[in-house]
Amino acid sequence: MSLSIRSATPADISLIGQFIRDLAEYEKLAHEVRFDEAVMAQKLFGPRPFAEVLIGEIDGTPQGFALFFHNFSTFEGRPGIYLEDLFVRPDARGSGLGKALLAKLAALAVERDCARLEWSVLDWNTPAIDFYKALGARPMDEWTVYRVDGDALTGLAAHSI
């Protein structure tokens, strides 16, 4: 069995879309998926990419992905990498591909002089939590994620000066 990690290209947009749908199904959030592949392709591969994608392959067959972007730590005064999504197809779990994807992200973080690599995990996803802890990740229990989207985002933006 041969594992490999490569950067996604515009030709991978349908594959990325399928990985996202598969992840959403696993997370019981399929009803939340609203992306348009053409728009997503522009945002990932256009003149100003907002995120990057790694494709994980086993014996040349795509079996997982990691979608990430840079954030910035004001306390560190350096960038970080935020992992938005990590997914490995169920039949490929246990192959080492998930660890290989995270190791590649860690290597990119070191190469790019990032202070950290961060992500969120659903609190019910015990297999993922156990996997991340085994890699040395630690939960940031004192932080709560907040979100403004949809009408609330539009409403807040209307108060911009």
Describe the structure.
This protein has one domain: Gcn5-related N-acetyltransferase (GNAT) (Aminopeptidase), CATH 3.40.630. Helices cover 34% and strands 24% of the residues. It contains five helices and five strands. The chain has helices at 13-26, 37-45, 97-111, 126-134, 150-157; strands at residues 3-7, 52-58, 61-73, 78-88, 117-119. It has a five-stranded mixed sheet.
Calculate Rg over CA atoms: 17 Å
CATH architecture assignment: 3-Layer(aba) Sandwich
Number of helices: 5
Reading the helices and strands in chain order gives EHHEEEHEHH
Estimated structural class: alpha+beta
The low-confidence parts are none
CATH superfamily: Gcn5-related N-acetyltransferase (GNAT)
| Lateral arrangement of strands in the main beta sheet | 1-2-3-4-5
Domains counted in the coordinates: how many?
1
Q: Can you tag this structure with a few keywords?
A:
161 residues, 5 helices, single chain, 34% helix, Aminopeptidase, 24% strand, alpha+beta, globular
Q: Topology, please?
A:
Elements: E1 3-7, H1 13-26, H2 37-45, E2 52-58, E3 61-73, E4 78-88, H3 97-111, E5 117-119, H4 126-134, H5 150-157
What is shown here, in short?
The protein is α+β, with helices and mostly antiparallel strands and 161 residues long.
